[in-house]
Design goal:
Elements (H helix, E strand, L loop, with lengths): L1 H17 L1 H5 L16 E9 L5 E9 L5 E7 L7 H10 L4 E5 L13 H16 L4 E11 L1 H12 L4 E5 L5 H8 L5 H4 L6 H4 L7 E8 L5 H8 L5 E11 L7 H15 L3 H6 L15 H7 L9 E4 L2 E4 L21 E3 L2 E3 L2 H7 L6
Parallel strand pairs: 3-4, 3-5, 5-6, 6-7, 7-8
Antiparallel strand pairs: 1-2, 2-4, 9-10, 11-12
């Protein structure tokens, strides 16, 4: 009998180890909204290239009035396809530029989901957004839901996020897995750990937490552990009549997020810096993105020695001189612009390659 139990335990342990990717990720390919448009934004599909060339597909929404605007980068949940964010962006993120891109393997994005690549891709998305001419690079927030809260926390640690919103966040996927598989050595098996609690004390941006009133996926005890470690907690609210699945769609959730971000973005930068958010002088961008930031006026041209456009170095002009057109990385309908592993496809090509069926 003991031998049978041992064999059963070994079999279950092997099964969990072999299928852990399925346990952590549940890629949804079909669009939740077939033809997403934001009533409060100009909406266009975008295709970005990750550092390894993987295609990442999503949407960029920009306010209809001239910028620069504060901005939001959104990270979805375990089973979430993000087209619904486009539909609801007018209520969630009024007067803000918004970037919502599906993870690898989700929606029309290529590749296979994994924690390391999701965080790397998230940092790339932040950098790309910071380089847009219509975006105020000093005012970019990250918003993460459920699994995406772990991505948002790590991106906010690596990049100068102005504000952070975490919807049904957890302390770590490892802790949740250990709770569900008590008799298994999960800590030796799990590769995708999303240990937000390790990074929470390092976050400098004001952070707002939203919990579901009833949550059987992320128990409040796991959120409590994270909240206790957050260095700049600004609020911790429970949304009435919400559960883990419906919370992002509720008016109570969307109004709370909109009010928090509007309030944070409305503060003078000096005040935000005192509260922990980075100021203009503290923004650090990778070398690949700096040339784009120069053209957008985010950082001065003398700080950069050369720009890499389509993998070819392009010397920048001396201080005060005009920047030549090829160095200005703006996606047009004429030709894509590629910046050292990051590419923006022309709008016409994006529309042609991304059928509205979402299959």
């Amino acid at each position: 009998m003991a031998g049978f139990a041992s064999m059963l335990w070994l079999g279950l342990t092997a099964a969990v180890a072999a299928n852990q990717r399925r346990l952590v990720f549940n890629p949804t390919v079909e669009r939740e909204v077939q033809s997403p448009r934001s009533s409060g934004h100009r909406t266009r599909p975008v295709v970005l290239r990750a550092a390894d060339g993987t295609r990442l597909c999503g949407w960029l929404m920009t306010p209809k009035i001239p910028g620069p605007h504060p901005a939001v980068v959104y990270f979805g949940g375990r089973s979430e396809e993000v087209s619904w964010v486009v539909r609801d962006a007018g209520k969630l993120f009024p007067n803000m530029a918004v970037l919502a891109v599906n993870y690898r393997g989700y929606g029309e994005s290529h590749g296979v989901p994994a924690e390391i690549q999701m965080v790397e891709d998230g940092c790339m998305l932040f950098d790309w957004m910071a380089a847009r001419v219509h975006v105020d690079a000093r005012r970019i927030a990250v918003v993460g839901r459920s699994l995406g809260s772990g991505v948002a926390v790590q991106v906010a640690k690596e990049r100068p996020a102005h504000s952070v919103v975490l919807i049904t966040p957890y302390d770590s996927i490892l802790a949740i897995a250990k709770r569900k598989f008590r008799v298994m050595p999960i800590e030796y098996m799990l590769r995708h750990r999303f240990e937000s609690i390790k990074y929470a004390p390092a976050l400098k941006a004001p952070t707002y937490v939203l919990r579901a009133a009833s949550d059987d996926v992320v128990p409040h005890s796991h959120t409590d552990q994270l909240v206790a470690k957050l260095a700049q907690l600004c609020g911790d609210d429970i949304v009435p009549e919400s559960d883990h699945m419906n919370i992002p769609y509720l008016e109570g959730t969307q109004s709370r997020i909109a009010n928090f971000l509007t309030s944070q973005f409305g503060k003078p930068l000096s005040e935000a810096a005192a509260a922990g958010s980075p100021g203009a002088d503290s923004i650090q961008m990778p070398a690949e993105v700096q040339p784009i930031a120069v053209s957008a006026g985010i950082i001065p041209a003398p700080a950069i020695a050369a720009a890499a456009i389509d993998a070819a170095p392009v010397p920048l002009p001396p201080p005060g001189a005009a920047i030549p057109a090829p160095a200005i990385a703006v996606a047009t309908e004429a030709a894509p612009i590629a910046v050292s592993g990051l590419a923006v496809l022309p709008l016409a090509a994006v529309t042609a390659e991304l059928p509205l069926s979402g299959k």
